[in-house]
Amino acid sequence: MPKIRILLADDHTLFRQGIKTLINTEPDMEIAGEAANGGEAIERANELRPDIVLMDIGMPGFSSFEATRQIRKNRPETKILFLTMYDDEDYLVEGMESGGSGYVLKDSPAPQLLAAVRDVQRGGSFLSPRMLSQLVDDFRTRIKSSNRLPRFATLTAREKQVLKMLAEGSSVKEIACDLNLSVKTVEAHKFNLMRKLDIHNKAQLVQYAIQKKIIRIPMLA
């Protein structure tokens, strides 16, 4: 049975060495190559044709999310498993939207990472239990509070940030650039905040922002 061929993309040499040692002791998987940044990950993925890329988030230079999009575009059969220290829901959303199949935290136990690799290789997906727990807790909190909190209070910090920038006149593309997010992610935040606030167009959004003093009407001289 052929081994699962893995490309390891991480900018920390010692970390790569540790993961390489772990992976290469498994009878059904091997490290096919390494990359120290997003651009190199794209090149190595094209060259080595791995089954899975273990992709760090926050490498210098080329965005890991953009690298993921490019790899998936060039080789749809190559799956991306994010291996990161960031237990951040926004990063999780961006990672999945960019084409990722899993999200594993770097402080996870070794068996969890190995299980993630095997699940993703079989065509499934994997989410670190701590991230899953955060999502479930957040969902429960929103359900419990939705009937008694003001609508504005149900917005996440990122949705409030996007609301303010939209009301100030920024386009979705400009917001994506300023916040280092994909256009799809900003569109999702925009859809969610307008749904929660029962707002249906830009004029209503600006009016709401003025009423809530999120933005100020410029005073005429």
Describe this structure in words.
This protein has helices at 13-24, 38-48, 64-74, 89-97, 110-121, 129-145, 157-167, 172-179, 183-197, 202-211; strands at residues 4-9, 29-35, 52-55, 79-84, 100-105, 126-127. It has 221 residues and is α/β, with parallel strands linked by helices. It folds into two domains: 4-132, 3-Layer(aba) Sandwich (Rossmann fold), CATH 3.40.50; 149-211, Arc Repressor Mutant, subunit A, CATH 1.10.10.10. The protein has a six-stranded parallel β-sheet with strand order 2-1-3-4-5-6, sandwiched between helices. Strand 5 (100-105), helix 5 and strand 6 form a beta-alpha-beta unit. Helix 2 (38-48) packs parallel to helix 3 (64-74). The longest helix has 17 residues, at 129-145. The chain is elongated. The relative contact order is 0.09.
